[in-house]
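Listing S7. Sequence submitted for prediction.
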Amino acid sequence: MPGLRLGKKPATDDPHDLLFTKYVDAAQIPPAPTEFGHEKLIPPKGWGMLGNDEWGDCAWAGPAHETMLLSTEGGHPATFTTTGVLSDYAAGTGFDPKAGPPGSNPTDQGSNVREVLGYRRKTGIVDASQKRHKIGAFVKLEPKNLAQVYQAMYLFQTVGIGIEFPGSAMEQFHEGKPWSVVPGAQIEGGHYVCCVAKRQNIDIVTWGALQQMTVEFFEKYCDEAWAYLSTEDLQKEKDPEGFNLSQLKEDLAKL
């Protein structure tokens, strides 16, 4: 199996972040079901590595995976290429693949997730047909609040999270095992993944594949979590779970 890269810079705080709890009344939203998700809409080999085997572009490959799922749910599936994802990584961070080979390229420094979110909102990420996909508002979740993350996953189909990545998780990925806490494991860097389903464990997408993550792993290593307002999966102005995202976008615009 090829080498795999990380590429998320440490989580940062910003007082201007929109907080999930400020405009979503948890008491009025039904709790997430025991199991949910639409991850099977994408075939197992359909996600694609999107450059993250060689470069630290996880914070750009992840959004492409999110958009693939959302656009498929909306009935207009988008596909992404490594070239396109790397072009956004370059535009957003100054990465230059010509500056050196993988592993010793001084411009391959990874990304701040919030900066990537700003790029997605203002510019959008490019798909294989050169169409750009933007998000609306992005809202910050409490990274250790699993109930909140589940609720956001159920409402918005996917949640992007950053994790402080232990070396043991790389071994577990190669062995096809769920990510679980291994005492004494050393942090190798930061990684961005998208959560797409709640099953026996939490199902995420990374390195072109579905990967399971235990609740204990999430609670120990997640350092940031984000939900996005997107029109990609809307059908008659509502998302697949019937939540009116258009109205929520209007409410957010007034904040």
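Caption to Listing S7: primary sequence and predicted structure tokens for the chain studied. The first strand starts at residue 18 and ends at 19. Residues 233-243 have pLDDT under 50 and may be disordered.
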